[in-house]
Amino acid sequence: MNCGASTSTSDSPSYPFPHDLGPKSTMVESQAVQVNLPNKGVDFGIQVNLRGLHLMMKSTDTQVEVDVSESSTQTEEVFLPEIEDNKEEATEAAASPEVSPRKDGIYLPTKQEDSDDSNMSGSDNEHQGETKCEKPQDDTKYIVFKQELFKLFKYCPECGAVVIKRNQSTQGSQLFVTLECMNNHKYSWQSQPMLEGMAAGNLLLSSSILLSGSTFTKVASLADILNLKIFSEKTFYNIQNKYLLPVINEFWLKEQNSTFSELGGRDLWLSGDGRCDSPGHNAKYGTYTMIDQKTDKIVDFKVVQVSEVNNSNAMEREGFKRCMENIYEKGGKIMVVATDRHVGIRADMKRNFPEVDHQFDVWHLSKSITKKLTEKAKKKECADLSLWIRSISNHLWWCAKTCGGDKEMLREKWISIVYHTANIHSWDSADLYEECAHQPIPPAIARTKRWLRPGSSAHNALKEVVFDKNLLKDIQQLTLCCHTGNLEVYHSVQTKYAPKRQHFSYNGMVARTQLAALDHNANTGRQQATVSRGANQGELQYKVVFPKNTKEWVAKPIFEKTTNYHLKPMLNAIVERKCLKPQERSATVTAPHIPENIASKPRPPKADVIANHTSRFSNN
């Protein structure tokens, strides 16, 4: 099959169709298709749609349209002969002197407002033309290998002629390619749409790193292993400060106002607890969080840097004070606050908030008692006490739950444990609670129990803990049976966004805590999951675990999976902020006037420190 046969000559070269253009549904199976062209006088071209839908061929004499839509027809692949002038283009290094190196290109800021994304590994300014995309965040993305991608750039998309020159450059994760064919046609292509001078992929990847709770260090390590092109660390933090942090802050303030509106004018029952940003006693940041006990939503939090207070232990007290003041400023009516037994917070409650009922967290107090009993049970003569530790902890919870708000009833119920463990179930030394609430124990069962003999070392050790003066005083603040267990669950979410082994700037720490609070609030009220199919359809789901503290197999409910629907509007807002003019954007987030470095003395010149450097491992 020849097109334009009347114009062909005996010495005219023959060019097979490029095999990369897709299967040809109208051509004869297993045959190569070629066109014989005269040396001159004929205008021949191939117009290619990159989606592989149509192939147009035209000449001065005939015009043939061949449909190359996908089909199962098998065709023979024919390769064009190698062109000597194009051999250098076959290798990556020779394709262009502007080919970027493996690592991120050097960051080259410009005078433009968006210089944070100008780390171009190449100088082709013509590539910076913008491609409009209404919502690039909604577009599907793929990982494309270079060797597969560049197969599409062997032939000119305009005329189908062989490409004799190819230039490529990168802008972070963005790839630009410029082609020039033997017919002097020039074609430019870019891998991403542009958003006001910034590659959309750079903005969206930076957003995804932060919104998912990951860090640039981890993603950069992944990219390095995968040999994946991404932007530099400086670009990431510039994007974070200009576009991500302001949007996250706006969404948190909206969520906080919405939470207060939801709570209305009712009296608030709050639980509070602190969290340090690193293990041990060398924390830089302390975050104090207040959660509503009824709705389980985060009401407020404050991040305190250690340089703002005397020591790391004082950060929790300062954070608590700031939370209380901020909630009052927003019109909150606080009736009950449950905290741990922090001495400073206890003093502030008495001095500054006497109208608020200050309750202690049952979980923290139970944990403290368990720790003391475990330590005493390590002694050989007190070994029998270890069998009762779990029951004593449960007894404290039962006392707080059933005291009816009566402090004296709570105290007498707690003391009754010294009688029960000795197989004494009624006594006359109390005014309100004179006998155990359980049913009489049958003698056969009683004989199997490891009761503590009155006057024994184990029983005396128990009495030392139960009758501790400070403990008897503190349990009077358990009358409402408040606990911060939901805050401990939230802290695990916070660890996802702000891991303790990673250092963050003050603004970064605040933003990541805001993301954790938004994540928690968006996923409150989840129900226990049920079996969706099979013979057990509709039954509640459980998982069987073996906790290290109890060393017993227990069943734990499985709740419905969390969702990230709340992140989509945030991502849209980030893209919208980038598309706004600088003067139309809201202000960036500013940190309070606190030193970035928490060192206790000024930093000396680097040369002096190096000069004084010594090492016990020196070879000298």
Q: How is this structure best described in words?
A:
By secondary structure, the chain is of the alpha+beta class. Helix content is 32%, strand content 15%. The protein is built from 18 helices and 18 strands. It has a 5-stranded mixed β-sheet with strand order 14-13-12-15-16, with helices on both faces. The protein has a 4-stranded antiparallel β-sheet with strand order 6-7-8-9. The radius of gyration is 36 Å and the shape is elongated.
Short description:
The chain is built from 18 helices and 18 strands.
Identify the notable features of this structure and list them briefly.
elongated, alpha+beta, 4-stranded antiparallel beta sheet, 18 strands, 5-stranded mixed beta sheet, 32% helix, 620 residues, disordered N terminus
Reconstruct the topology from this structure.
Layout: E1 14-16, E2 34-36, E3 45-48, E4 54-58, E5 63-67, H1 92-95, E6 120-121, H2 146-149, E7 163-171, E8 174-181, E9 186-190, E10 194-195, E11 198-199, H3 200-211, H4 216-226, H5 233-263, E12 267-276, E13 285-292, E14 298-305, H6 314-329, E15 333-339, H7 343-352, E16 357-360, H8 362-377, H9 389-402, H10 407-415, H11 417-420, H12 443-446, H13 457-466, H14 469-474, H15 485-497, H16 506-522, E17 542-545, E18 554-557, H17 567-579, H18 606-611
Parallel strand pairs: 12-15, 15-16
Antiparallel strand pairs: 1-2, 3-4, 4-5, 6-7, 7-8, 8-9, 10-11, 12-13, 13-14, 17-18
